[in-house]
Design brief:
It is a single chain. This protein has 37 helices and no strands. By secondary structure, the protein is an all-alpha fold. Helix 32 runs antiparallel to helix 33.
């Protein structure tokens, strides 16, 4: 409530949009409603009072309210509504009532019978009942002042400030209204009752025949000659509905009129049913009864109000929630909220108010947490949990991730992992990752399993974006997509958490995904990212020291032998591709006439490229793979062994610019390709690149033959 109040104060001091101000105002009011109702609902029930025949009606009423929770809550709702309504400023007060009319009456008396026809409609006497009794009017200026004054008094009564209303009436000579207000107090004799409800009450006071007083007020509230605000004053005092609704302008004012009418009707019905009201048939003026006999009926009536303003205001989501809180159906609110948010998530609908309004979702999340904290029912656990999960996701979307762990900590373990992983999946900034590690530790969150779910979430989210390629022509050596970057960045969570086994396993899965879909450039960037992290230092250190115990290996999250072997194989492929790129860069610097310095540089690169690629061609991904990856790895060999072979062939043929022995080396690769032990030729066949290789062999044969004294056959 303090947050809403502070935010509202800031907005009121700026040129903020009116709808934003209204939303924060309604939120502050809603928290006030929650405070007043749930303070009562969570308090121990009070025992009913003993009611005897001579007991004051005040004690009987208190006993009724103690046994009827909804009736007591109606009084609390009235109190809450009174606090929400503001009173418009009144006119400058006059110490004399009907000042102008008084002057005219005095003038008429002084002039005797010579009264002009222009003043015959003016009252002859100045008592408050004169206009009704004489069916005459007061001076128009006095009538205008009275209307402004009555409106002000009505506003004071509507906002519950009875003391101020009495003071205004006494200061302006409206003693009839003051007397009527005194009649509101039910008769109470603390000595006779023997029950202390208010320690300050020590003597008998109040109205013994309040039912009769109420009917007196009703007559005044329905008097057609009276001003509408004067009628509304008496209507408000006695619980009349029509006279008050006629001058009420807002949803809150209409709701107050209905609930006051309902409360007055309920208590009088109770007193009459217990023979505590005795009115003769002549005195018993029937009170007009509303069709809305419950709060739910009242809320439905407001949604169909003749007033377009009230109808529109009743549609505001926070007023819907207020109605749900009053009728104690918060569980239904949470259930509806969950269904609405899930319908957008499941693409049943494009959007709705809950998914579009972060303030509303924030309010519901805090409402669920508040009710949980005081042990009150907020509906099914899965509904409240779903609302809180969606709020955590909303914090992530709104770049307020630093707040999320506080709310994640309130969720059950499985839901917490799911919600927190949604947030972590989009974080790539190292500083923000460090911040989340600190917050997870502060709130004792299961960060290890959350990180596993985070990486799995990212993998699942982009799974459809990586179809396996059918041909080597689809290899992408230049581009990296945002999805590729997000996947690569996500693995750094494992590195930062020192989860080395998870880091290696996930890297292997991502290398496989990238390479099967032909994303060679993305695989290279993944390698570069991991190579610059602590992962490689740890792996190198681990592999160099073989005297670790199994307990140390498990505690340090070191990867298994096969996982490390597969990881190194991917590393080897990426390094091989890097060597090809290195050669291409050097070869692009070649000058036509040759250059000794360039040839030395090029020879150094060639001597590194050849053995590295030969090793890959002969042994890449053989005998180190888990059984469930055999088919996928075979597909990688079909794609990349021919690629490496043909690239090596090209490099060695271009190496002629360095020395004529390199094309011969390319030609000698035929023996490896034809080897039944290595089955490289089968990979060329399956990858539909054998013809391409044969053409390359023919080409290099011509080069070698041209350099040989006896032609190609010498070779």
């Amino acid at each position: 409530m303090r947050v809403a109040a502070n935010r509202l104060d800031k907005l009121m001091s700026t040129d903020a949009p009116q709808d934003e101000i209204e939303t924060w105002l309604l939120e502050r009011r809603t928290w006030a409603l929650i405070d007043i109702l749930y303070s009562y609902r969570s308090a121990p029930a009070k025992p009913p009072l003993k009611v005897w025949k001579l007991t004051s009606n005040t004690i009987a009423e208190e006993s009724f309210y103690r046994q009827n929770m909804s009736a007591r809550e109606n009084l609390l709702v009235i109190s809450w509504l009174q606090r929400t309504l503001s009173n418009p400023p009144g006119p400058e007060l006059r110490g004399v009532k009907w000042q102008m009319t008084r002057a005219q009456v005095k003038k008429k008396k002084m002039s005797g019978f010579g009264v002009s026809t222009a003043t015959t409609a003016i009252v002859r006497t100045l008592d408050p009942d004169a206009p009704l009794r004489e069916n005459a009017s007061i001076d128009s200026e006095d009538a205008e002042f009275d209307r402004a004054l009555f409106r002000h008094v009505f506003g004071l009564l509507q906002s519950g400030d009875y003391e101020a209303a009495q003071q205004v009436c006494e200061a302006t000579g409206n003693y009839t209204i003051t007397a009527a207000m005194n009649g509101m107090v039910e008769y109470r004799d603390p000595v006779l009752d023997g029950v202390v409800l208010n320690p300050e009450e020590t003597i008998a006071r109040g109205t013994k025949r309040k039912a009769l007083w109420r009917r007196m007020c009703l007559r005044l509230a329905t008097a057609p000659q009276a001003d509408k605000y004067e009628r509304a004053i008496y209507g408000l005092l006695c619980g009349d509905l029509d006279s008050v609704l006629f001058v009420s302008e807002s949803w809150e004012a209409h709701l107050l009129a209905y609930v006051q009418h309902l409360a007055a009707t309920e208590i009088e019905t109770y007193l009459r049913s217990n023979d505590r009201i005795n009115l003769t048939s002549q005195e018993l003026l029937a009170f007009p009864q509303s069709q809305a006999s419950t709060i739910s009926d009242i809320l439905n009536a407001l949604s169909r109000s003749p007033s377009p303003i009230v109808r529109a205001q009743s549609e505001h989501p926070l007023r819907h929630i207020q109605g749900g809180i009053i009728t104690n159906v918060v569980a239904k609110i949470m259930q509806d909220a969950r269904q609405k948010m899930e319908s957008v998530r499941d693409e049943i609908e494009d959007s709705n108010i809950l998914m579009d309004d972060s303030c509303l979702l924030r309010f519901l999340a805090h409402l669920a947490l508040f009710l949980k904290s005081i042990g009150m029912d907020a509906g099914e656990d899965e509904d409240a949990v779903a609302v809180l999960k969606f709020y955590v996701e909303d914090l992530a979307i709104c770049d307020k991730g630093h707040l999320a762990p506080l709310y994640v900590a309130q969720l059950p373990e499985e839901a917490a992992i799911e919600a927190y992983s949604f947030l972590l999946a989009d974080i790539s900034d190292p500083k923000k990752r460090a911040e989340q590690f600190a917050l997870a530790d502060k709130f004792d969150l299961d960060i290890l399993n959350t990180l596993r779910r985070t990486i799995q979430r990212v993998f699942d989210e982009h799974e459809d974006e990586y179809p396996a390629i059918e041909s080597h022509t689809e290899l992408d050596l230049t581009n990296e997509s945002p999805a590729d970057q997000q996947l690569s960045n996500s693995l750094l969570w494992f590195v930062d958490a020192r989860m080395w086994d998870d880091a290696v396993d996930s890297a292997n899965a991502l290398y496989l995904r990238f390479l099967l879909s032909g994303k060679v450039k993305s695989a290279e960037n993944l390698h570069a990212q991991l190579a610059n992290s602590q992962l490689y230092d740890v792996l190198n250190d681990f592999e160099e020291q073989v005297d670790y115990s199994m307990a140390e290996i498990e505690d340090a999250h070191f990867p298994g032998t096969k996982s490390r072997a597969e990881f190194r194989q991917y590393e080897g492929l990426i390094l091989g591709v890097g060597l090809i790129r290195m050669w291409d860069a050097v070869y692009s610097e070649k000058v036509l006439d040759g250059d000794r310095a360039w040839r030395l540089k090029a020879k150094d690169v060639l001597d590194r490229v050849k053995p590295a690629l030969v090793d890959l061609i002969c042994g890449w991904m053989t005998g180190v793979v888990e059984a469930d990856k055999v088919d996928a790895i075979h597909r990688l060999r079909v794609l990349y062994i021919p690629y490496l072979l043909l690239e090596l062939h090209r490099v060695l043929q271009q190496g002629q610019a360095v020395h004529k022995s390199y094309p011969k080396d390319a030609l000698e690769m035929v023996d490896l390709v034809a080897s039944e032990e290595l089955d490289i030729y089968k990979l060329l066949l399956e990858g539909e690149r054998l013809d391409e290789y044969l053409v390359a062999i023919a080409s290099v044969s011509l080069v070698v033959g041209a350099d040989s004294q006896n032609g190609i056959w010498r070779v």
